[in-house]
RNA sequence: GCCCCGUUCGUCUAGGGGUUAGGACAGCAGAUUUUCAUUCUGUAAACAGGGGUUCGAUUCCCCUACGGGGUACCA
């Protein structure tokens, strides 16, 4: 077999916001495509009009763009295989269903949804599951059981029908999965899935196979939830005569809840305090808002990195990877088989790593909107200096405010516990004297202040802690924060004096 | 229920018939410092259980348990 050009697709259905697991699936597809110099395609699988959610498609595109995934073909950009929205490809599926009808691998079925449901209910009450398949199709209403003329009559009269695949009897169907190896299923376990719905649209199974073939997809990389229907897809390729062009399959392990069990789901995010969606999403009906990584302050590069490592690893001890590095190192055979629990703590750590990689200018850019919101007015230069001395202390941009608010607003109250521990009987006296020293300094820079304080300590026979702790309280309002001398330098002498005096007058002991 | 997939520290994972079972996050302890945090150093922590195969199994096979997925005219 000649080497096929690598072409992969990400094929979400626009039924709501893209789940973070979906982002990972897209990422793996992208990495694989780029690694092999292939194409990454976005196809929208909207064959279920009842579940269509307005805005979902835009959301998907925006989310993927945000994390830095770009498509070579797809909705929004077009390409040689356009259109890329299945609802716009409606007319092309019917012929393939008919070909299957022709060659005897599919048949018409006339059982109504109501009838099917009744049978399922009945079986269920007997603790059994009804499967429309090799064992049961003989007693159902379809072109296999009905006389040919009845079938024709029904068809001619416009009676609703579906087209079902005719699963073979007693045959081992083999799926060769790139991650799991050979997966074999007995065909009797499969059911005669509907391929073509009564509303004239194909189901996912038909559409996905037809489109992958027509779009010359070389590798189907998708979630593990598709593994059970992969044998069906293999059968379809075979019956459609495309066996030699069948893509290779890779079924990804699922993303699991961090606590307990089960697939990571919509509700987990807000319950456990981390987003499950890349972007914030407001439900069109319930107006319920689900948080997004972007809005929560995650850096896209960090999200990419942490997602890449949930189910895959390079086999080295390197933890931090840029997209380019991921592309270089990625390979399907290093993808894990088992599901991965999402670790919110590690996600924060990744964000911290990427945040401190940013320059002060970049952080200013990101931090600025928040300052505006707080009504802070300051110069870029000042803000950047502030950022430079607190940046190491945060995981998220919004935390910069928690670490730096006192650079913009003087403390109005003083942390009670800190006062109790750090504010001594003689603090006012010491600080008054220190403030006088400050006033006499010709220059007010970190180094000079440091020297002055040291001299002061020596003269007064005081320890660093006795003075600095109280001083910090006056400047910050609590006993936390970065290096004092750098802070004073930034704040300037006047503000420093003002804060010292205010604290002396305010803190009563 | 039935079918499919899986199971190495709390979590993400490396490894693989003979290893001190390695790393990262989180934890704990120490160091640094004017505080808090960062950082650095150290430390604790795992092969689900039972049978085989083998000189030897965490690694290969089987069973059990547990977990996950599927079982729609949804994708």
Structure, described:
With 509 residues, the protein is mainly α. Among the domains are: 89-252, Glutamyl-tRNA Synthetase, Domain 3 (Glutamyl-tRNA Synthetase, domain 3); 360-401, Helicase, Ruva Protein, domain 3 (Orthogonal Bundle), CATH 1.10.8; 416-506, Arc Repressor Mutant, subunit A (Orthogonal Bundle), CATH 1.10.10.350. It is built from 20 helices and 14 strands. It has helices at 20-35, 56-67, 90-102, 113-125, 148-156, 204-214, 230-239, 266-272, 300-308, 323-329, 344-355, 360-373, 380-390, 399-404, 416-422, 427-439, 446-460, 464-476, 484-491, 493-506, and strands at residues 7-10, 39-42, 73-74, 106-109, 162-165, 172-177, 181-186, 194-196, 219-223, 248-252, 255-256, 281-282, 289-290, 340-341. Helix 6 (204-214) crosses helix 7, helix 12 packs across helix 13 and helix 17 (446-460) packs across helix 19. It binds one RNA strand of 75 nucleotides through helix 4, strand 7, helix 6, strand 14 and helix 11.
